[in-house]
Specification:
The complex is a heterodimer of chains A (554) and B (153). Chain A is mainly alpha-helical. Chain A contains 14 helices and eleven strands. With 153 residues, chain B is α+β, with helices and mostly antiparallel strands. The chains are: A mainly alpha (554), B alpha+beta (153). Chain B: Keywords: Ubl conjugation pathway.
């Protein structure tokens, strides 16, 4: 789904961080007194939000260019060499300057640049043509000796000028080499570079000759490859830069090109903050860990534990995710086709809950039956069942709900795609404007967002020690869940022009309510972290446990 | 650009049949430019003395820019050598067939490399993860991400 500009993703407009890596004292602490951009719904930064900025590709390119130009002028090298040196040093400019000043020949060699190369910045092409430009410190390019097997002089005779050794064209249109002098035809170079860049996603590419560790300079790539391959190469360099810069992260959504800059999520903060950021396209992801999505309210280290557990136990748990179940009354197969848990059997009209399979009638008043693992029945079962069985059931209880919210979020989005089509048709046949048919879209987006929160609250509940705080947490969870299920159910109401005004009012109200419940959930958990209210029933990376409760397996 | 594989393979074939075939290596099948089969023996003293293996080469149109797919044949007649870098399904874990491939290399140089890989072996054993790998291995070893831990064996 796409997000228009007027969506209320006000995260990115909050504060503008400058994108450079002057991690010194730049602008990490800007205060919020300029409220000209404040949105009506949110007037203050919530305790679960962090400061960040979303950068366009061009902004990153500017930073790279500035770094590069600095190296060019200090070392008096060409742009390709500067780029290779920076990539070699993981874009750590300071370290590069220090090392280079100390021993330029060594740094150049390690970076895959033959040391006779340094020429004035005016010489653009690194292609071997005038080897006399500047006296080099060392002239021997050491060959990699990593492969000890058959130091084969190879059946391919080296320096005999019989055309291109790779394609065996005896009369190629043009032959070129890098500074190492290994000559091949341009077509082979182009094909080779295309494969490395497009298929393997490499930006540091070695010479085609065996055991030659000279790297292909940027200018050579630009000259040899077509524009599409070169622009892919530039993107790879950019990604390499972002990956090596602490305060930057590339949006993990497929084919998204935004980068988020954030200086307010240092590793030390990750036990109390879940640094969630959103790119300009609306993709939410975690700045603190590799999880490609919003995992609030659970902190990174515990979220990682949970995903690992789900991965390890996936075979046992898979059956739950299955898309079909049998009606508890007449046993006919029912397929879940919407995001709502309220199921009605088509055959016998029996109404039940998809999650617990219990009759729906009991859910109206006693909703918590469905969000809490029934500790009492579990303790009764302890007498007859083995401990591992119980711990598996406990896990499955939480996993079941986790997986269900994930599945339901997907189904809601799919269902909405159909609704949207219908609404578009109605817009033509009725007097409704486009804006007026947007209410369902807002609702489905909110449902998706809240199901993500809910999903992670179940992972969190699995690892929380039993306490009053946990009970309050589960109350919030239940309230949010109830609100989301209601809204989900509303989304499944068949739409026709007559019921639109009523539906619109109801859905708008419910959406606002759901949004509020979600904020309460996130705000309360965030505050709980800061107050030290949450204690985990398992060791968590970065957190010292003050006491060892014996009842940790609760 | 036309596929360069046929022209290159024509030349390699000529060299292999004109007496430039490495010692201990014999071309068994080369009817097309997709699959070749060669037999391979380790000459001199080695743990594999007297054993004959067979290698299957498969070439993509991008060969030799792209590396060939090379496996030891495992059938009624041939077995894969018992070696820490050779899986029982014939897949070979050698960096030269993966990220260390250079388009300058060819069928003969791959054979020589594999011969010396076998010749320098000190202990006949399968890779430690053989069973797990063979159970889940893709049909083509080129799809495996081998971890080239120790190329000196
Ligand atoms: Zn060529
Ligand atoms: Zn070279
Ligand atoms: Zn994005
Ligand atoms: Zn995280
Ligand atoms: Zn039924
Ligand atoms: Zn239920």
């Amino acid at each position: 789904m796409d997000y228009s500009d007027d969506d209320d993703y006000n995260y990115d407009s909050d504060e503008i961080m400058d994108g450079t890596q002057d991690d010194a004292s730049s602008v990490s602490e800007m205060d919020e007194d300029e409220d000209f951009h404040i949105q009506p719904t949110k007037d203050k930064k919530k305790s679960y939000e962090i400061d960040f900025d979303c950068l366009e590709q061009t902004a990153i390119q500017d930073i790279i260019r500035a770094d590069s130009e600095q190296i060019i002028s200090i070392f008096n090298v060409d742009a390709s060499t500067a780029s290779l040196l920076l990539r070699h040093m993981g874009w750590n400019k300071e370290r590069l300057i220090e090392k280079y000043m100390d021993n330029p020949a060594q740094v150049l060699e390690a970076a895959g640049i033959p040391s006779q190369q340094p020429a004035g910045p005016s010489q653009p092409a690194p292609i071997r043509s005038n080897p006399s430009t500047r006296q080099a410190t060392s002239t021997v390019i050491r060959r990699s000796t990593r492969r000890s097997t058959a130091d084969s002089k190879a059946p391919v005779a080296p320096l005999t000028p019989v055309g291109c050794l790779i394609c065996c064209d005896e009369n190629p249109a043009s032959m070129t080499s890098l500074m190492c002098g290994h000559n091949f035809c341009s077509e082979c170079w182009a094909e080779y570079l295309k494969g490395k860049i497009r298929d393997e996603g490499e930006c540091s590419i070695k010479c085609m000759a065996e055991d030659c560790s000279v790297l292909v300079p940027d200018a050579f790539i630009k000259e040899t490859c077509d524009a599409a391959v070169y622009s892919r190469f530039e993107e790879l360099v950019l990604r390499h830069f972002v990956a090596h810069t602490k305060n930057l992260k590339y949006c993990p959504a497929p084919s998204c090109v935004y980068t988020v800059s954030c200086t307010s999520a240092p590793p030390s903060s990750l036990t109390t903050v879940v640094p969630t950021v959103v790119c300009k396209k609306g993709h939410a992801f975690c700045f603190g860990c590799p999880i490609e999505g919003d995992h609030r309210p659970l902190i990174c280290a515990v979220a990682k534990l949970w995903l690992q557990k789900c991965h390890d136990d996936s075979e046992t748990a898979n059956w739950i995710k299955s898309n079909t179940k049998e009606c508890t009354k007449c046993q006919s197969t029912i397929e879940k086709n919407g995001g709502c848990n309220h199921m009605t059997c088509r055959k016998c009209k029996h109404e039940f809950c998809w999650v617990c399979m219990g009759p729906w009638s009991e859910h109206g008043t006693a909703w918590y039956n469905c969000n809490r693992f029934d500790e009492k029945s579990s303790s009764e079962a302890r007498d007859t069942q083995s401990k591992s069985r119980i711990s598996l059931e406990r896990y499955l209880h939480y996993y079941n709900r986790w997986a269900n919210h994930e599945q339901s979020a997907k189904l809601s989005v799919e269902l909405y795609a159909k609704t949207e089509k219908k609404m578009e048709e109605m817009q033509i046949t009725s007097s409704l404007t486009w804006i007026e048919v947007q209410f369902a879209r807002k609702a489905v987006e909110e449902v998706e967002r809240c199901r993500t929160t809910l999903k992670w609250t179940y992972a969190m509940a699995y690892y929380l020690d039993r306490s009053n705080a946990k009970e309050l947490f589960e109350d919030n969870q239940r309230d949010l869940e109830k609100a989301v299920e209601d809204l989900s159910e509303l989304l499944e109401t068949p739409i026709d022009p007559e019921n639109i005004p009523m539906l619109r009012q109801k859905m708008t109200d419910k959406t606002v309510y759901v949004q509020k419940r979600n904020e309460i959930m996130l705000e309360d958990t965030a505050n709980g972290y800061l107050e030290g209210r949450w204690s985990w029933n398992t060791p968590v990376e970065g957190i010292e446990r003050d006491e060892e409760p014996a009842s940790s397996s609760a | 650009m036309a596929a360069i594989a046929p022209r290159r393979l024509t030349k390699e074939l000529k060299e292999l049949t004109m007496g430039e075939c490495p010692a201990g290596v014999q071309l068994l099948q080369s009817a097309d430019f997709e699959t070749w089969v060669l037999s391979l023996e380790v000459l001199g003293e080695s743990l594999y003395k007297g054993e004959v293996f067979a290698l299957r080469f498969r070439f993509e149109p991008q060969y030799p820019i792209a590396s060939p797919e090379v496996t030891f044949i495992v059938d009624d007649k041939f077995k894969a050598p018992i070696h820490p870098h050779v899986y029982s399904n014939g897949h070979i874990c050698a960096s030269i067939l993966g990220h260390e491939w250079s388009p300058v290399l060819g069928v003969a140089s791959v054979c020589i490399t594999l011969q010396s890989m076998l010749a320098s072996c000190k202990k006949r054993e399968r890779p430690p993860d053989n069973d797990r790998y063979v159970r889940t291995a893709p049909a083509s070893p080129k799809k495996s991400r081998f971890h080239y831990d120790d190329d000196t064996v």
